[in-house]
Amino acid sequence: MPEIEHVPDNAMFGKYELGRLLGCGAFAKVYHARDIRTGQSVAIKVINKKKLSSSSLMSNIKREISIMSRLNHPYIVKFHEVLATKSKIYFVMEIVKGGELFAKVAKGRLSEDLSRKYFQQLISAVGYCHARGIFHRDLKPENLLVDDEGNLKVSDFGLSAVTEQIRPDGLLHTLCGTPAYVAPEILTKRGYDGAKVDVWSCGVILFVLNAGFLPFNDPNLMMLYKKIYTGVFRCPKWISPDLKRFLRRLLDTNPDTRITVDEILKDPWFRKGYKEPDLYDDCGFATTGDKEEYTTITNMNAFDLISFSSGLNLSGLFDNSYNCAEDDDRFISAEPPLKLVEKVEEIAKSENLRVKKKKEFGVELEGRNGNLMMAVEVYGLTDELVVVEAKKMSGDCRLYREMWNNRIRPLLLPQQDTRTPDGN
């Protein structure tokens, strides 16, 4: 008789032996794990469903599952499968043991040749995604991992967009990304090309790798946005003339004249020592197992995966009950700051909220019974544009969401600035 394989008592779904904690964030924890069938090490991202408090967060998770299932590239973290229980979702992924690229840069700037190597691998992965209608939108050294062979691996597609999210004007409209790496056109709230904002972020990353610091940086968020919007940066003396020229093409504030991925691939600085990677065929992914224990996702073709057609029903992964989490929100407006603050005060009065003045252009709003405290502030971005920012300070999260999203925000937005159900 064949020998029966022993399954450890702590094996998840009878398949994975969970190990040490590798990292954690607001909504997820990542663990080292071992596939008991093959002995292969994997990383498992565990997401607590109760912390997915809004439809936009749920949409991000569904989109990340769909996108990662579609990608198969040597410089992108490989996705194996997704599993779920009533309370948690599990992403099973390739484990990358070299850590974040950010940790390497934190120890000191990289040589021009090593910076070029990582940038070449990054562009290879980004170009692969763009060719499949996928835009990362949150590229930064913290989302770039390095394997034990010294190769780059792009990770974290939670803020990625797909072509189906593009509006009739041909642009994306969601304000997202990490401030220091965000492209100037995102700040204007007038729509942007996903491929071009990824190229800008790649430019910031290349600058950081070789310079050892950010091209645009300021502890004040609004001052940071102003620096990005003007696009003025200084290269340190050790950056070569060819790299300076290349960086200025990457960090061009005009998206229409900014260098494209196709042009990057032809650039002399980029081409030095460049080798096209071996690419794999796209393939489908599936989960299997006891239906009573976790949700199964069936094999799908690429079109079904990316468009969330009825064939890929992810609804079973999510419950209808979620706890509220605190959300900050920002949007761009062309209205005068004083007029915006006056509008907030009028709305607050009609909603029976107390108004407390703050310095410059901003107010604090408080519920009559103390169940809500929130702040709304207006910051100058340019001579014509301002940023309106809302923060929940204390109290009931659901009440804050209802008050801001449904009562205050719609009355402050220009008439044409509307949201789709998933916030895009």
From TrEMBL:
Record has DNA-binding as a keyword: no
Catalytic reactions of this protein: L-threonyl-[protein] + ATP = O-phospho-L-threonyl-[protein] + ADP + H(+); L-seryl-[protein] + ATP = O-phospho-L-seryl-[protein] + ADP + H(+)
Binding positions for ATP per the UniProt entry: 45
Domain NAF, chain residue ranges per copy: 295-319
Enzyme class: transferase
GO molecular function: ATP binding; protein serine/threonine kinase activity
Segment forming the signal sequence: none
Domain Protein kinase, residue spans: 16-270
Keyword flag Kinase: yes
UniProt cofactor(s): Mn(2+)
InterPro entries from the UniProt entry: Kinase-like_dom_sf (IPR011009), NAF/FISL_domain (IPR018451), NAF_dom (IPR004041), Prot_kinase_dom (IPR000719), Protein_kinase_ATP_BS (IPR017441), Ser/Thr_kinase_AS (IPR008271)
Keywords annotated in UniProt: ATP-binding, Kinase, Manganese, Nucleotide-binding, Serine/threonine-protein kinase, Transferase
E.C. no: 2.7.11.1
Pfam family, one: Pkinase
Any one of the GO BP annotations: signal transduction
Family: Belongs to the protein kinase superfamily. CAMK Ser/Thr protein kinase family. SNF1 subfamily.
Name of protein: non-specific serine/threonine protein kinase
